[in-house]
Design goal:
By secondary structure, this protein is α/β, with parallel strands linked by helices. It is built from 9 helices and 11 strands. The strands form 3 sheets. A 5-stranded parallel β-sheet has the order 3-2-1-4-5, sandwiched between helices. Strands 9-6-10-11 form a 4-stranded parallel β-sheet. It has a two-stranded antiparallel sheet with strand order 7-8. The protein is globular and about 55 Å long.
Length: 253
Amino acid sequence: MIDDLGAAVRIDRPVRRVVSLVPSLTEAVAVSRPEVLVAATDWCTHPEDLDVERVRGTKNPNVRRIIELAPDLVLSNQEENRRIDVQRLRDAGIPVWVTRIETLDEGFASLRRLFTEALNGPVPDWLVEAEISWAATDPGPPRRTVIPIWRSPWMVVGHNTFTGDLAARLGLRLVHVDRTERYPHVSEDELTRDVELVLLPDEPYVFTRSDGPEAFPGLPVALVEGRSLTWYGPSLATARDTLTRQIAEAFVP
């Protein structure tokens, strides 16, 4: 098998034991193939009743323990996980499937390949529903938008990101999309310059009604579910409706 980065991954059939190092993929497998998921990271918070062994975080997984678990496949992501951890697992003979997802279309294609090729099963119903939900439509004139992901210092969503592509489908034009960094640091002046709408997700920084909106006086602020905005998994089936509603509420007096 060939993963998203073009690396050959030898997978013995059938796949009975999967370790996921990516919260989005953990939820996707837990919802669709729960019988194969044996471990996940501490950051894997969905489904809420997820009951599998934890192998630390996405950036510091317990490689030794993962090897002891003898998984048939480990799921990772180019952006969320470290190359050195992937290599250590592969050096130990553990098959690792690396995903690369920077757009919705890449996400849909990657998830289809994961379930049909890597896991040798059917396409989940939620994935079909998500593809239909996000089918291309005319969102109207774009709103100049900023999406902070951290404060002190302020960091925002820039170019070539999954979140940025998703935002574009919602009719949002990120004001910092022309910066060279994918997640640029910005000053307080740059943060609000030429902005018509602010989206404040609840992850990775937990923006709340009392922590975040006060930095954008006079601007419409939408407090949105970070999972709808940044995760590529079952949440995509409902994310468009959820985000559209939350954005509309920001313009209600």
